C-alpha cells in the first residue's frame, strides 16, 4: 500500500496559500496537551477505526503524530479501508517544530473530526 506523505515545509506552504486542508493530530491526550499544529483537531489513534467515516471526503486530511511513524501506519490503515484523501506528515510535529513553525495550546474539548 502506498502512503502519501508531505513534509512540514510543503504543508506550511499549502496552508499559507489558503488551501483547505484538515489537520488531524492522532497523538495521545497527554501529548496533545503539550501543543498542536494551529487549526488542527485531535482524534486519538485508537479511535480512528470508530470515527473514520466522519473524516472529510472533500479535502485532503493530513494526519500527524510525534515523529510521523504512528500517522504513517494510520494513513496506511485508512488507505486499506478505501480512504484515499489522507496524507502523512513526514517527521510529525517534531519536523514542524524544527523548522520553527507555530505550535499552539489545544483548545478545550477540541476533540473530534472536522
Notes on the structure:
- The longest helix has 12 residues, at 69-80.
- It is built from five helices and five strands; from the N terminus they run βαβαβαβαβα.
- It has a five-stranded parallel β-sheet.
- With 114 residues, it is an alpha/beta fold.
- The N and C termini lie far apart (25 Å).
- It has helices at residues 8-16, 29-32, 48-51, 69-80, 92-98; strands spanning 5-6, 22-25, 40-42, 61-64, 86-89.
Classified by CATH, the class is Alpha Beta
Predict the CATH topology: Oxidized Rhodanese, domain 1
Largest sheet: 5 strands, parallel
CATH homologous superfamily (4th level) name: Rhodanese-like domain
Assess the beta-strand content as a share of residues: 5-15%
Spatial strand sequence of the major β-sheet: 1-5-4-2-3
Rg computed from alpha carbons, rounded to a whole number of angstroms? 13 Å
Number of helices: 5
Question: Mean pLDDT, nearest integer?
Answer: 94
The tally of domains stands at 1
In quaternary terms, these chains amount to single chain
Spans where pLDDT lies below 50 across 5 or more residues: none
* Secondary-structure element pattern, one letter each: EHEHEHEHEH
Distance between the termini: 25 Å
CATH architecture: 3-Layer(aba) Sandwich
Class inferred from helices and paired strands: alpha/beta
Classify the helix fraction into a percent range: 25-40%
Number of strands: 5
- Describe the global form: globular
